[in-house]
Amino acid sequence: MYSTTVSTDFVAQHYLTVPNPGPEGVPHSHHFEIEVTFRGPELNEYDYLVDIDDAEAALSEVADRYRDELLNDRRAFEGSNPSVERFARVVFERVADVVTDGTVTELAVTVWEDDTAAATYDASV
After folding, report:
1. Domain layout of the chain by residue ranges
2. In which band, very low, low, confident or very high, does the pLDDT at 12 lie, cut at 50, 70 and 90?
3. Any idea which UniProt keywords this protein has (predicted)?
4. What secondary structure, in 3-state letters, does 67-100 show?
5. Which of 25, 34, 50, 84 is deepest in the core (most CB within 10 A)?
6. For the domain 2-124, what is the CATH code?
């Protein structure tokens, strides 16, 4: 199985909307780092699993969409708690919609909200 990973980072804000979230219920910033790993058993005719330029462009679009934004105000989080787990799923869905190389069979998105806490969403594509 081959894998190719791209990453980016940016600052965004959120607040949790669950009952009794403590200090996380107040708007605050995180320096998010996002890693996207593409996996597949075969390479394409150019010996790529995925075109890294396409993958980086998709991730850059995600970063531009959420950089310096309050996640709670974005449509992707409407009606949801903007947890780091939810954020990983939101990024997964966006990247999977844009990067559609036929050799990619699995995608994993890890969102780090600080140096010690991260969440991953992975699935077949």
Report:
1. 2-124
2. very high
3. Lyase, Metal-binding, Zinc
4. CCCEHHHCHHHCCCCCCHHHHHHHHHHHHHHHCC
5. 50
6. 3.30.479.10
pLDDT digits (tens, 9 = 90+) for 21-38: 999 999 999 999 999 999
> Residue 28 — φ and ψ, nearest 5°?
-150, 160
- Residue 14: what residue type? H
- With tokens 């200090």, the residue in question is 23
- Please say whether the beta carbons of 107 and 37 come within 8 A: yes
What is the helix (H) or strand (E) element at residue 54, kind and residue range?
A: helix 52-66
Q: Which two tokens stand for residue 59?
A: 């991730």
Rounded to whole angstroms, the Cα distance separating 24 from 8 reads 24
Q: What are phi and psi of 89, to 5 degrees?
A: -70, -40
Inter-residue contact 99 to 38 (CB < 8 Å): yes
How far is residue 50's CA from residue 31's CA, in Å, rounded to a whole number?
A: 27
